[in-house]
Amino acid sequence: MVLSVVTAKKRISLYLDEALKSDLERLAKIRKRSLSNLIEVICEEEVERAKNSGELKDA
Fold first, then answer.
1. Where is the CopG-like ribbon-helix-helix domain (predicted)?
2. pLDDT band at 52 (very low <50, low <70, confident <90, very high)
3. Residue 29 in contact with residue 36, Cβ under 8 Å?
């Protein structure tokens, strides 16, 4: 079965250590999120932190 998801979001490839992937999958399950959504939320939080600290300036 092939599922097609219609979204405006961009797809990326990501290489992770197996142990990190496993931990992220467990955390996603605990938080009732998909792995993809969990990684997106973590990235959003880190970018916001970088903006708030001045490390990353709005373009």
1. 10-51
2. very high
3. no
